Amino acid sequence: MKKKLIFSGIRATGRLHLGNYLGMVKGMLQLQEDEKYQLLFSVVDIHAVTTPYDKDKLSQRTYDVVLDYLASGLDPEKSLLLVQSKVGDLHAELAFYFSTVMTVARMQHLPTYKEKAQQHPDNVTMALLNYPVLMAADILAYHSELVPVGIDQEPHLEVTREVARKMNSLYGMNFPEPKRFATEGGKVPSLAGEGKMSKSIEGSYINLTDDLETIKKRLAGAPTDSGKGESVPTSGGVANLLQFVELFMGEDKRKGYEAMYVGEGIRYGDLKNELAEAIYAELKPIQKRRAELEKNPEYVEQVIEEGAKKARQIASATLAEVKEKMGLK
Ligand code: TYM
Q1: 14 backbone φψ class: left, alpha, beta (φ>0; ψ -120 to 50)
Q2: Among protein residues, the one whose CA lies closest to atom 7 of ligand 1
Q3: Which domains does the chain possess?
Q4: Closest residue (by CA) to atom 34 of ligand 1?
Q5: Is the CB of 138 under 6 A from ligand 1?
Q6: Are 111 and 74 in contact (CB under 8 A)?
Q7: Which of 62, 89, 253, 312 is in the most buried spot, having the most CB atoms within 10 Å?
Q8: How far apart are CA 30 and CA 148, in angstroms?
């Protein structure tokens, strides 16, 4: 049986946080156990240069994601690990052809584009506008039908589906229309009270490499209230903390705390301590594996080279077909 490829990626922004882990990595690890699929875990370093970045730190940031993938459970016997720039020539060329079927107006309407344009008003570049088209190239190069990503990536998947439909109808390609593979952590909240956990918002995240003390410190900064009220808050700091309780300690524990909130009251010091221990219990084995991997760079390098070689074979076949069907013979 020929296995179906599943592609997903994380930008090369350094160490992973719990949002990346619960929203994406865990979904990938779940699918890795399914015989039907072969997984392609990618570090998308070319996407990382579409907004201002530090060129001296990029390769270390890429490597940090590589290590976090392997430490979390990417099994090179089953899955591929791809550093995107190793096949950047193929993905970028494919993205260029895909950009011929997407209008500027459509791309300017994307919420992610608008957000980034607001964050970096002096860097609203062609590369930024084309970011989702490059993502479509990543996914469609491998005909990935499922894409494990967080909810925030939905608008990008919609672009990918549009590209697929247009390439199929205009040029007779046979691209799938990829769907999001959802995990229970599709939208991990920020520790800061509002919005989602994000690398670009200080105080919002916990990294996979954080030790117990750091986790406690980060949780200590999460906003709370008096611990008591008539009804349990549905948004803001307390609601977010309760969501973390559910994600790391289960639904019953959450219900227990909710009952306390409308009863005798929650002592947040106790809740945060218990939560920190539960998060650390999940991260500790990952950190142990990471420390071992750090001592074995030759092995990591070999996994990267092997992934690039296999990915190149597949992506170059897709690119050749696209060129041929577009009349670029
Ligand atoms: P990026 O690097 O922003 O995030 C990587 C993955 O982590 C998920 N994520 C979250 N999930 C739940 N809650 C959160 N708070 C949270 N924060 C981040 C994201 O949804 C994502 O799955 N455009 C992509 C990278 C990309 C890609 C691709 C993904 C490029 N090409 C092809 C899939 C397939 C991005 O910026 O992810």
Answers
A1: left
A2: 20
A3: 4-186+297-325 (3.40.50.620), 212-292 (1.10.240.10)
A4: 8
A5: yes
A6: no
A7: 62
A8: 10
Res. 1: pLDDT tops 90: no
Q: Which two tokens stand for residue 274?
A: 């218990």
Please give the radius of gyration of the chain, using alpha carbons only, rounded to the nearest integer. 21
| Ligand 1 contact via 11 beta carbon (within 6 Å) | yes
Q: Which two tokens stand for residue 234?
A: 């549905």
Mutate to test the pocket of ligand 1, among 44, 87, 133, 244 (most ligand atoms within 8 A of CB): 44
Number of other residues whose CB lies within 10 A of the CB of residue 178: 21
Encoded tokens for 170: 């205009």
Cβ 152 under 6 angstroms from ligand 1: yes
Strand positions, DSSP E, 25-66: 37-44
pLDDT tens string 58-104: 999 999 999 999 999 999 999 999 999 999 999 999 999 999 999 99
**Taking the model in full, what pTM does it have?**
0.96
pLDDT-derived band at 310 (thresholds 50, 70, 90) equals: very high
One-letter identity of residue 6: I
Closest CA to 34 of 73, 79, 67, 81: 79
Nearest to 73 by CA among 294, 283, 271, 311: 283
User: 65, 197, 178: which is closest to 132 by C-alpha?
Assistant: 178
